Amino acid sequence: xxxLIEEQYVWRLPVRLYHWINAFCITLLxxxxxxxxxxxxxxxxxxxxxxxxxxxxxxxxxxxxFVFLANFIFRLYWAxxxxxxxxxxxxxxxxxxxxxxxxxxEQLKSYLFIKQEEPNYSGHNxxxxxxxxxxxxxxSLFMILTGLAMYxxxxxxxxxxxxxxxxxxxxxxxxxxxTMHHVVAWVFPVYLILHLYAVVRHDIVERSSITSSIIxxxxxxxxECPEYTD
Amino acid sequence: MKKETTYAEIxxxxxxxxxxxxxxxxxxxxxxxxxxxxxPTFVRAMETKPRIPVIWLHGLECTCCTxxxxxxxxxxxxxxxxxxxxxxxxxxxxxxxxxxxxxxxxQIIKDYKGKYILAVEGNAPTKDDGVYCMINGESFTNVLKxxxxxxxxxxxxxxxxxxxxxxxxxxxPTGATPVHKIIKDKTVVNVPGCPPIAEVMTGVITHLLTFxxxxxxxxxxxxxxxxxxxxxxxxxxxxxxxxxxxxxxFDDASANKGWCxxxxxxxxxxxxxxxxxxxxxxxxxxxxQAGHPCLGCSEPGFWDNGPFYTRLxxxxxxxxxxxxxxxxxxxxxxxxxxxxxxxxxxxxxxxxKQKSETANTxxx
Lengths: 230, 364
What we know:
The complex is a heterodimer of chains A (about 230) and B (about 375).
Chain A: E1 2-9, H1 13-37, H2 53-81, H3 97-100, H4 102-111, H5 126-151, H6 159-164, H7 167-171, H8 174-185, H9 187-206, H10 210-216, E2 218-224
Antiparallel strand pairs in A: 1-2
Chain B: H1 7-13, H2 18-31, H3 39-48, E1 53-58, H4 64-69, H5 75-84, E2 86-90, H6 98-111, E3 117-121, E4 124-125, E5 134-135, E6 138-139, H7 140-149, E7 153-157, H8 158-162, E8 176-177, E9 188-191, H9 198-211, H10 224-227, H11 238-243, H12 253-257, H13 275-278, E10 314-317, E11 320-323, H14 324-363
Parallel strand pairs in B: 1-2, 1-3, 3-7, 7-9
Antiparallel strand pairs in B: 4-8, 5-6, 10-11
Helix pairs in contact in B: 2-3
């Protein structure tokens, strides 16, 4: 048994909102994206002009993508200028030994069962921060750039195409860009598994209410009290 | 050097009457996207400008571009184009051969320095000093460089010359290299397609003759007039795509009804060309109209984005041929297995800790 010793307000409302909008958008984008690549629903009976099955999935995909993009920009703003100790980028310095050195290594060792102690962070621990950066930040940026480039293809020379169309040159052809957009989309379900597992594990090991903290914003510190153990 | 003749003079001598000549000028201005007010510009150019010699080189290729070009659907187009460009050097069409023909090429380079058009069909194998394509004892790479040096304009015919096509598909054994990667000091107009549509080819040449400059090019150096829209956006089967009505196999009822070929691997959504508008063989048809998915033959690396008959391209992954979904599912499976193993590890660790704590309390 343990004793609750402290309640901490970690995730402020903008961060929590971002988290859930992001989760919702990614889920929707992934499902509609898979459908666009492999439209599995059986065709409707009647004239083609009566139906918009594929068009609807694409519409939802593009619409959600713009919400996702706005949310991403909002989070970027909050990370750079927000008055938020735990939601800022300020502490994230993967190039610096202060960040890369002891704290990161200790956390990694703990995850790999090399070290017994489990470091306890109020915000993101360094390994989590790096994972977020690689999967969520870089992954989203990749999807946004390639997504907008493809979105602009129906109107070459238009605004979207002029701003983002150059992306196609990295991949050689539009088809390869589509393929890579599809491959990188799988980063998100992979991340989801790591993320959910890490959250549940931390909650069980540390009893820090980390799972509910993304709804309430509060985390808890618990201290072992030997006298309560059976 | 003999007196330079104009196009109009040549056409007259060939028996093309004024009416057909004007028809041709209108046709070309329409293809190139100019308004009818530009027709006099085309006429004037044809009447006054001296005809330009064209050197047509053949590298690693299959001659399908030439086959397409000489079948320019419109009879007047074919006739006029073939007559008006003074096709002085072309290994396929020239009567002369060997040293004789090479001498002609060298003569044009000398006589018309900076005034001739270089059209290249096929690309240059660069591996092993270019021995995989030799012309009269000289490597094609050298011939290309020599001829391009004094050319007024360089046109890359077809996907081979533009992007590499089948020759530079993986693993590219001969080191086949598209023209724009060899000729770097000049803008190379890419006219991709395997082959390009004949009218597109004649259109590009006509633009060059009329205005004395290259047509407007897009990011991949293709003329915007012909490569400005996706096949998908002008496809007459697009309503079936939007409605989600797809052909599932080539012998099903929906194939008969002419539904969308997206699930049969149609590359229309990623291919920029004018097949749905200009069409082939005199506006008769184009692949999708004939019930076959677009292969994306005018797109860079289309051989490596296969297979032709599935929507998802194969991605080489750890030495296997996979696709995006297979890779994704393997990654998700690995993540899940890894996390499960980690959970077991955590449980064991917790168990040990509890045991040692209990042992400690008992001892104490």
